[in-house]
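Dear support,

We are seeing what looks like truncated structure output for some complexes. This example has two components. We would appreciate it if you could run it in full and send us the complete token output so we can diff it against ours.
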Amino acid sequence: MKSAVITFPGSNCDRDMAVAIELVSGTAPVRVWHGDSALPDGLDFIALPGGFSYGDYLRSGAMAANSPIMRDVIAAAERGVPVLGVCNGFQVLTEARLLPGALMRNAQQTFICRTANLTVENARSLFTAQYSAGQNIAIPVAHHDGNYFADETTLDRLEGDGRVAFRYADNVNGSQRAIAGVLNAAGNVLGMMPHPERAVEDAHGNTDGRALFEGVLNALATA
Amino acid sequence: MKVRIHVSLKPGVLDPQGRAVHHSLEGLGFTGVEDVRIGRTVEMDVADTTTDAQITEMCDKLLANTVIEDYRIEKVG
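Here is the complete output from our reference environment:
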């Protein structure tokens, strides 16, 4: 699997993401700087990591969404290349309009850093196929702006089309309909606030995130 | 030319910051505050040749997130 992890100024989970991808796939991802004008050729998978790109100036993810490399990321996503955005990566994907909605300040105003219980809502996507529908998994969250918002029409469409990938079992941040992760219409772009890359090896105390990366790997192997 | 962009949350979008400030105002003893919404003002110095369409494009592409925010353009002179 030829993958890439994008690093923006202020990303801080890029190394964790790269380690997780290498652990599961056996191949280290290419590390790409946000200011690069082009992605490497022939990528199978792109990950946008967590962090505080551009210090969350203006809005979380807003500046990064306009980074030079994002033109190529958007083009790759539109070609069907799997793209995963975690935490700040999710915020970047919504700001880049690759995913609907927006991530607002947590309802309780505080930064939350804990393990969240999630329900897998859609186990048919390439990212979630190694889980089963309705499965409960525990994945760490660490964010201040994770409160998912979209208008009612959009929320109804997301639910109807099976694009809610994960939901919080207990709504940790006030998200509309407790949404923790959403897919794009084609199913090749996933954004989620919880950090699956922080739950991939025994030393993490929890390996519930591993199946997400295995799902991507498996989808690519059988494609 | 000076331009001020007033960015505010759309009606109906919950504003947790505004609510917290509202509580604080009540805690300070101010009564009769019905609602508090927090927005953002962006002041720009732009070339006099900048068109309204260009300013609108700046707002739509970066200064506001129109999924959750409205904006108003004020030309200060």
